[in-house]
Amino acid sequence: QVQLVESGGGLVQAGGSLRLSCAASGFTFSSTVMRWYRQAPGKERELVAVIFSTGGITNYADSVKGRFTISRDNAKNTVYLQMNSLKPEDTAVYYCNAFSLARHYWGQGTQVTVSS
Protein backbone atom coordinates (compact mmCIF):
# COMPACT_ATOMS: atom_id res chain seq x y z
CA GLN A 1 0.00 0.00 0.00
CA VAL A 2 1.00 3.62 -0.41
CA GLN A 3 3.11 5.02 2.41
CA LEU A 4 4.51 8.49 2.88
CA VAL A 5 6.72 9.05 5.91
CA GLU A 6 7.86 12.56 6.73
CA SER A 7 10.80 13.44 8.95
CA GLY A 8 13.04 16.39 9.77
CA GLY A 9 10.69 18.70 11.62
CA GLY A 10 11.57 20.35 14.89
CA LEU A 11 12.01 23.58 16.79
CA VAL A 12 14.19 26.27 15.26
CA GLN A 13 14.78 29.97 15.85
CA ALA A 14 13.66 32.54 13.33
CA GLY A 15 16.22 32.81 10.54
CA GLY A 16 17.23 29.19 10.89
CA SER A 17 16.90 26.26 8.51
CA LEU A 18 15.39 22.80 8.42
CA ARG A 19 15.23 20.08 5.79
CA LEU A 20 12.17 17.90 5.62
CA SER A 21 12.22 14.49 3.99
CA CYS A 22 9.39 12.30 2.77
CA ALA A 23 10.11 8.65 2.02
CA ALA A 24 7.57 7.14 -0.37
CA SER A 25 6.60 3.58 -1.20
CA GLY A 26 3.76 1.63 -2.77
CA PHE A 27 3.50 3.54 -6.04
CA THR A 28 5.62 4.58 -9.00
CA PHE A 29 7.35 7.49 -7.35
CA SER A 30 9.40 8.53 -10.37
CA SER A 31 6.29 9.33 -12.42
CA THR A 32 4.28 11.01 -9.66
CA VAL A 33 3.95 14.70 -8.93
CA MET A 34 4.83 15.33 -5.30
CA ARG A 35 3.68 18.19 -3.10
CA TRP A 36 4.32 19.62 0.33
CA TYR A 37 1.43 21.18 2.23
CA ARG A 38 1.25 22.75 5.65
CA GLN A 39 -1.45 23.44 8.18
CA ALA A 40 -1.13 25.94 10.98
CA PRO A 41 -3.43 25.85 14.03
CA GLY A 42 -6.86 27.22 13.17
CA LYS A 43 -6.03 27.55 9.48
CA GLU A 44 -6.77 25.56 6.37
CA ARG A 45 -4.17 23.30 4.84
CA GLU A 46 -2.20 25.19 2.18
CA LEU A 47 -0.01 24.11 -0.69
CA VAL A 48 3.63 25.04 -0.14
CA ALA A 49 5.53 23.52 -3.06
CA VAL A 50 5.14 21.17 -6.02
CA ILE A 51 7.70 19.19 -7.97
CA PHE A 52 6.99 17.34 -11.19
CA SER A 53 8.23 13.85 -11.90
CA THR A 54 11.57 14.69 -13.51
CA GLY A 55 12.32 17.37 -10.94
CA GLY A 56 12.83 19.99 -13.61
CA ILE A 57 9.63 21.90 -12.87
CA THR A 58 8.79 23.27 -9.46
CA ASN A 59 6.31 25.77 -8.10
CA TYR A 60 5.97 27.54 -4.77
CA ALA A 61 3.50 29.48 -2.71
CA ASP A 62 4.29 33.19 -2.78
CA SER A 63 4.87 33.13 0.98
CA VAL A 64 7.87 30.77 0.65
CA LYS A 65 9.38 31.74 -2.70
CA GLY A 66 13.09 32.41 -2.42
CA ARG A 67 13.30 30.69 0.99
CA PHE A 68 12.13 27.10 0.39
CA THR A 69 13.39 24.61 -2.17
CA ILE A 70 11.65 21.38 -3.10
CA SER A 71 13.69 18.57 -4.63
CA ARG A 72 13.45 14.85 -5.21
CA ASP A 73 15.67 11.82 -5.53
CA ASN A 74 13.86 9.28 -7.68
CA ALA A 75 16.49 6.64 -6.93
CA LYS A 76 15.64 6.91 -3.23
CA ASN A 77 11.90 7.51 -3.64
CA THR A 78 12.28 10.60 -1.50
CA VAL A 79 11.16 14.19 -1.77
CA TYR A 80 12.74 17.00 0.25
CA LEU A 81 11.83 20.47 1.38
CA GLN A 82 14.77 22.69 2.26
CA MET A 83 13.51 25.59 4.36
CA ASN A 84 15.78 28.58 4.94
CA SER A 85 15.24 31.95 6.59
CA LEU A 86 12.40 30.49 8.60
CA LYS A 87 9.82 32.81 10.10
CA PRO A 88 7.41 32.30 13.00
CA GLU A 89 4.57 32.27 10.49
CA ASP A 90 6.07 29.12 8.95
CA THR A 91 5.06 27.25 12.11
CA ALA A 92 2.76 24.41 11.05
CA VAL A 93 2.45 20.70 10.53
CA TYR A 94 4.00 19.89 7.17
CA TYR A 95 2.53 17.10 5.06
CA CYS A 96 3.85 15.23 2.08
CA ASN A 97 1.31 14.50 -0.66
CA ALA A 98 1.18 12.21 -3.67
CA PHE A 99 -1.58 12.01 -6.26
CA SER A 100 -1.59 8.53 -7.76
CA LEU A 101 -4.27 6.55 -9.59
CA ALA A 102 -6.84 9.30 -9.01
CA ARG A 103 -6.31 9.42 -5.25
CA HIS A 104 -4.53 11.75 -2.89
CA TYR A 105 -2.23 10.16 -0.34
CA TRP A 106 -0.89 11.90 2.75
CA GLY A 107 1.84 11.31 5.25
CA GLN A 108 1.32 11.65 8.99
CA GLY A 109 2.89 15.10 9.05
CA THR A 110 5.90 16.57 10.81
CA GLN A 111 5.73 19.55 13.15
CA VAL A 112 7.80 22.62 12.39
CA THR A 113 7.93 25.29 15.07
CA VAL A 114 9.77 28.57 14.53
CA SER A 115 10.40 30.69 17.59
CA SER A 116 10.84 34.45 17.40
Model description:
The strands form two sheets. Strands 2, 4, 5, 6, 9, 10 and 11 form a seven-stranded mixed beta sheet that branches. It contains no helices and eleven strands. The chain has strands at 3-7, 10-13, 18-25, 34-39, 46-51, 58-60, 68-73, 78-83, 92-100, 103-106, 110-115. With 116 residues, the protein is mainly beta. The model has no long low-confidence stretch (mean pLDDT 96). The chain is globular. 0% of the residues lie in helices and 54% in strands.
Strand-helix topology:
Elements: E1 3-7, E2 10-13, E3 18-25, E4 34-39, E5 46-51, E6 58-60, E7 68-73, E8 78-83, E9 92-100, E10 103-106, E11 110-115
Parallel strand pairs: 2-11
Antiparallel strand pairs: 1-3, 3-8, 4-5, 4-9, 5-6, 7-8, 9-10, 9-11
Overall geometric form: globular
Describe the main β-sheet briefly. 7 strands, mixed
- The total of helices stands at 0
Beta-strand residue percentage? over 45%
Q: What's the SSE pattern?
A: EEEEEEEEEEE
Helix content: under 10%
Low-confidence stretches: none
Q: What's the assembly state of these chains?
A: single chain
Distance between the termini: 40 Å
Q: Count the strands?
A: 11
Structural class of the secondary structure composition?
Answer: mainly beta
Mean pLDDT: 96
Rg, Cα atoms, Å:
13 Å
